[in-house]
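Attaching the record inline, Q. Sequence:
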Amino acid sequence: MNDRLWTAKTDIEREQQNAAMGVFECVASQISIMAPISIPCLLRTSDYSNAADGPVFNRWPLKSSGMDTDTKLFVVLGQAVIHQQVGNLAVMIEQLRRLVALSELPSVDIRIIPFTSGWYAGMEGAFELVESSRFEAVLMETRTSLSWTHDRDAVDMAREDFDNAKAIAFNAATSRKIITEAVAHLERQG
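Structure, as predicted:
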């Protein structure tokens, strides 16, 4: 953790890193998540998580993370996230309903980047920026590894990338409406 970059490649290292990140998330004042292609772990239902990658890669969902209720959570999702079916129809409906419910919480701000936005830095990969008065760290997750850094340049770049993506995203109310419409569309299919 004291190194500028902490990369976890084994299951044991990922478990250690997940536990450490869970502690940081619990005491964070703000968490900013860029998720261009899938629902981030903190917002997932258990069925979505199991359909997405199974329990090995799972991190704690928001409801069980122990995060402080004063923690501000900002999430920018690529529009593809709400249209890419993960699991069956019922799993997606439940997951999207969860996003709508979370978006109604005063401490949660969920935004959708439209398909028409063109390229943005978040398309290079998902990340989570965790901030408190005592630390800042960026978590970058791939299918095979987790990397966590508190390097000042990396944190500043992640913040800038997140802010730029948030600026091109729909506002929170429009994003909630888009997700709600996606739920209605899926319910009509079922």
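The radius of gyration is 16 Å. Residues 172-189 form the longest helix (18 residues).

More tomorrow.
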